[in-house]
Amino acid sequence: MAYVFGIEGVPIFEMLFLLSILLLAGLVFIFLELKKLNALFGREKSDLTRFEADLVRFKQ
Question: pTM, whole model, 2 decimals?
């Protein structure tokens, strides 16, 4: 019954499957980029704390 519905001969379940695969790939890509961004924030935070410590040391 599901093969009756679709667009230009492509079954609806096949379209939904491909759409879900593309969505999953997009989510994986986004999570990987967020992981990289979080690592970058960690590096920047350590650089900032080191810079602030240097400022305090140079003021004395």
Answer: 0.63
